[in-house]
Amino acid sequence: MLIIGELINSSRKAVAEAIEKQDAETIQKLAGDQAEAGADFIDVNAGTFVGKESQYLKWLVTNVQEVTDRPCAIDSPDPEAIQVALEIHKGIPLINSISLEKERYDSLLPILAGTDFKVIALCMSDAGMPESVEDRLKIADQLVNGLIQNNVKTENIFVDPLVQPVSVNKTFGMEFLNAVEEIMKRFEGIHTVCGLSNISYGLPARKFLNRCFMTMAISRGLDAAIMNPLDQQMMAAVAGAEALAGKDDFCMNYLKAFRAGNFAD
Amino acid sequence: MLIIGELINSSRKAVAEAIEKQDAETIQKLAGDQAEAGADFIDVNAGTFVGKESQYLKWLVTNVQEVTDRPCAIDSPDPEAIQVALEIHKGIPLINSISLEKERYDSLLPILAGTDFKVIALCMSDAGMPESVEDRLKIADQLVNGLIQNNVKTENIFVDPLVQPVSVNKTFGMEFLNAVEEIMKRFEGIHTVCGLSNISYGLPARKFLNRCFMTMAISRGLDAAIMNPLDQQMMAAVAGAEALAGKDDFCMNYLKAFRAGNFAD
User: Measured between alpha carbons, how far is A259 from B14 in angstroms, rounded to an integer?
Assistant: First the structure.
């Protein structure tokens, strides 16, 4: 499982404050803690600062890369902000994200073309968020084929089929799961990713539901997640699900996670 | 989800003692507690008492039916013992279980033919336990078709594809899940069932793993389980998984279970 640590996001109050104060220590602690807990990428997002996003995103990348060698997930809907951050990013970043929304697609594609950058491809178009499996697959097909034609390798593409809440429509969970399974079948070597907390919107015990849903999604082939690696119960769910889904030789990672004490039996 | 309460089983020391002492109170408390916690069937098993199994099974059925109107799951590999218990069982029982093992199949089929009894059909043959999806489906096809030809209704059949431990072979979890999905697709109206604790054999934090696996199985269509309904965390996993898998209109059961306080977020 590839884990994209989600904590450095300006939509979180403490992070917004740290960014405004240019408090590098707070940001670097979040980066270091997430890396230590198992994050493969450190997401950086300064999206709430209109007009200053590029500048702050660059500052985040610089500070994160001072304390960890994990690459950043450069998280912005704005191709310009992404490009500014890329100028100083060391190593191979994950771009979060391209979509089929025309403006975003057209301006981000040239930045990605022919590179080794990894990229999250959101199943979103100008028609809005998809609801059915078919809607998701149609967008995924266009996105993936467009990227491949522009010399982005399949194994660098992370398709996010977009989770919607089961409280809104009871079929939304299954539509997502079926989309994950189908995308993993359709494009050999591709990844699927999500930020799954949306599934539990409007319901109580959200963390509990998010863990259950993570378990289901891993059994369908989900192999990356934007999540909080400091959430020990979620990390335990990931380890348990990978063992059960046959992705953990001799259950070695599971046993290691168990010995690290993340488990409430 | 149909829940078959598993606690009245002579392989459990306290139950074996209660049976030997003919301590009806202990058995009746277990039956009542399981019914109250949501069991749809109360499993009764006296299999450890060689030579006395029929007599004890009959005693268990009598005592259970004095305190609850939930039907019994009459649990024995021995068709004779099942028949003795059936003589006094009121209502429509669940027979646990038929399999493709020749002796068991040939002697149990006449008991089931043309009845409204519900029956668990174990994917087991004289060749032993199946490992792959294909092995399971081959046995399931023969069992289900045999039962249907003998006028057992599809909706009264509960196929158990048999869980084997992921610690023995990492593919065993997925083989089981894929079998559940395929069986539910192949026979309209059929049920799938399992006693899933075998999945975690040989690993630590077994209850945790069993809950994760239940969650996965429900998302594949599993709609019955032989389990302990007094295990609140497992019951919470069932409620959560059903909401996520689109089997709970407006998440009503989930919200009810949450209000009953079974959840650790």
Answer: 32
User: Which residues in chain A have their CB less than 8 angstroms from residue B243's CB?
Assistant: 166, 170, 173, 203, 209
pTM here is: 0.95
Residues in A closer than 8 angstroms to B212, CB to CB, are 215, 237, 240-241, 244
Within-domain flag for B133 = yes
State chain B's mean pLDDT as an integer.
Answer: 96
Asked if residue B265 is part of any domain, the answer here is no
CA distances from A245 to A1, A190, A238, B56 (A): 12, 18, 10, 40
Give phi and psi for A154, each to the nearest 5.
Answer: -50, -40
Q: Report the C-alpha gap between A231 and A213 in whole angstroms.
A: 15
In a domain, A265, yes or no: no
Closest-CA residue of chain B to A165: B244
User: Is A243 close to B170, i.e. CB distance below 8 A?
Assistant: yes
Contacts B199 to A, Cβ<8 Å: 244
Residue B199: the pLDDT is: 96
Q: What is the pLDDT of residue B131?
A: 84
In the beta sheet, which residues pair with residue A125? A128
Range of the domain at A36: 2-259
Cβ A245–B207 below 8 Å, yes or no? Answer: no
Q: What was the ipTM of the complex prediction? A: 0.93
Which of A172, A244, A251 is the best substitution to test chain B (most B C-beta atoms within 10 A)?
Answer: A244
- Is B62 in the A-facing interface, judged by CB distances under 8 Å? no
Round to whole Å and give the CA distance between A26 and A201: 29
At A136, list the tokens.
């998701």
What is the C-alpha to C-alpha distance for residues A51 and A44, in angstroms, rounded to an integer?
A: 17
Residue B264 forms part of a structural domain: no
Residue A156: its pLDDT value, please?
A: 98
How large is the average pLDDT for residues A53-62? 98
The per-residue pLDDT for range B130-163, each reduced to its tens digit, is 888 999 999 999 999 999 999 999 999 999 999 9
Question: Locate tokens 């934007």: which residue?
Answer: A226
Indicate which of B167, B196, B215 best probes the interface with A, i.e. most A CBs within 10 Å of its own CB.
B215
The number of distinct structural domains making up chain B is 1
The enclosing domain of B168 has a CATH number of 3.20.20.20
